[in-house]
Amino acid sequence: MSGEIESDSGAGSASSLSSPHSASASSPHGIAPHPHTHPHPPPISHPSLRPDRPLLRADIAVTDPERKGEGLQQYVCYKISSTIEWGVGVDDSGSSEDTLLDQSVVVRRFSDFEWLANVLARDLPSQLIPALPDKSVMNRFTPEFIESRRQGLQRFLERLLSHPVLRRHQTVHVFLHGSGRDMELEKAKTQRDTNPAKSIMSFFSSAAQAVQTAISPGASRPLSESDVASSEMSVYTGRLQNELSQLEQQVEAWLAKEKAMSRAWADMGAAATMLARAEGTGRRVGDGDHGTVAATSGGFGDQYVAPPVPSASTSPSFNSFSPDALGLGGDRSLSHALALLGVAADQLSMSLQRKGADEEAELLEPLKDSLRTAGAVERMLQRRSSLLSSYHSSLSVVDHALSKLSAARSTPGKEGKVAVLESSLALAEETAERKRQELEIMSDATRAEFQRAQMEKQSMLKQVVQNFLQLQIHQANQAENIWNNVLQQIQAQEGQEEQQ
Predict the structure, then answer these.
(1) Containing structural domain, residue 65
(2) Can you list the alpha helix ranges (DSSP code H) found in 2-138?
(3) Sequential pLDDT tens for the chain (500 residues)
(4) Residue 300 falls inside a structural domain
(5) Are residues 71 and 189 located together in one domain of the fold?
(6) CB 240 within 8 Å of CB 450
(7) Residue among 199, 175, 231 nearest 446 (CA)
(8) Residue 94 — left, alpha, or beta (φ > 0 → left; ψ -120 to 50 → alpha)?
(9) How many C-beta atoms surround the C-beta of residue 191 within 10 A?
(10) Cβ contact 231:450 at 8 Å
(11) Phi–psi pair at 3, nearest 5 degrees
(12) Which of 2, 341, 402, 494 has the CA that lies 20 to 30 A from 139?
């Protein structure tokens, strides 16, 4: 699987994401040795993580799923081969004078991908984190599910490397190039950053702010232009998810009907063939002296070869009557037509099977991927909404501090508390201003990410529609060729019989 990745070198300079033809031998830690391999996670100053280093090329491949463990502890690991080339020096024309090559082969499991996505969502809440493939409790070790997940993980990494912000995160570098020990250290570090004690304190702080927001006279805040835009994006995304879900269900029902139709054509072909045999003539190749049906060079329809006419001594009879005389010996022309109908029905059955597989890959899976991406957009907007709530809570804290300060200033004997309350007010205003700036930056970023996702969705769905139409046209043309070939052979046989 391959895809296009956005280059830092400027417009029109894109690199192809493709599977490497061969993987380097891995080290005991699961990472291929090369001149730029780091024994431990590099610091943030590593050249590939610096924003002034342009990305020149990125090849990524998720391959070789391997089932490990036993019983309830079973899981699947995937090999990730990556070659990422960065520009180190840039001349006056903007071209890189030197390059840095990060190349490695590592083994990761699905939970490692989940950890990476969660860390990115925590550290970069304003960015659209690519969606991971769906989970499954049942059938999660079937070849079909494992292959579908492998393709989804491939898309996840391609989109990650296509993102100008996400691909420079330290955790991405460790995920793609770090050893097993490096991963353990990074996971321990991120776990310390979100330890339970901090989470509990954050909960109580949020609860206290919520109470203050509820009792504050300014609890109901006017929405800014960015707030309104974010709300509209959330409404649109919710509707999009609903419509995509409905379309996905209809496509699944459509594919189920096509599978049933494929089976129906196969059954009809078998029935037509049996009826042709009952007529005493048409049989398939290998059925002895009962007649044969030989494939034509054109690939559609079949040529009928009549069996030998039975002699009077071998013809069945009842008393003095011959079945042939009574019209019970069958009609060779009818048997010929039925035999061709049976073959054509088999061909249509196989054609529908291939069409269903293509529709599942080119229609159903892209729809599911779009639905997952819409979910990722919704989660991004929810993170923005959480920051908005936090900002409003900080404003309520300011209002509360200002109210207490005003009361102290107007109450005789409270002069000693005024200085403390002024300090609390200044701290609350500083916190509110910081959150306002964060919200402003996040609003701009989420809007840009939303627009980028919209463009990708539009391009993808247009391609899906075109692919679907092409599949229908191809199937219709194929069916027409099959039936025309059968009709021509039947008419040719009738012409030969008339000449005889």
Answers:
(1) 3-193
(2) 110-123
(3) 444 454 554 433 333 333 333 333 333 333 333 333 333 333 334 555 666 678 888 999 999 999 998 888 899 999 999 999 888 765 556 565 688 888 899 999 999 999 999 999 999 999 999 999 998 878 888 999 999 999 999 999 999 999 999 999 999 999 999 999 999 999 998 887 665 445 444 544 554 454 444 444 445 788 899 999 999 999 999 999 999 999 999 999 999 999 999 999 999 999 999 888 887 543 443 444 444 444 433 333 444 444 444 444 444 433 443 444 444 456 778 888 889 999 999 999 999 999 999 999 999 999 999 999 999 999 999 999 999 999 999 999 999 999 999 988 888 877 778 889 999 999 999 999 999 999 999 999 999 999 999 999 999 999 999 999 999 999 999 999 999 999 999 888 888 877 76
(4) yes
(5) yes
(6) no
(7) 231
(8) left
(9) 11
(10) no
(11) -155, 170
(12) 2
Is the pTM here over 0.85, yes or no?
Answer: no
Identity at 449, one-letter amino acid code: E
Closest CA to 8 of 170, 176, 165, 174: 165
Residue keyed to tokens 């993808």: 460
Could you please report the per-residue DSSP string of 74-118? -EEEEEEEEEEEEEEEE-TTS-EEEEEEEEEEEEEEHHHHHHHHH
Closest CA to 379 of 165, 132, 74, 18: 132
Q: Which residues lie across from 99 on neighbouring strands?
A: 87
In a domain, 209, yes or no: no
**Structural domain tally of the chain?**
2
Query: Do residues 141 and 249 share a domain?
Result: no
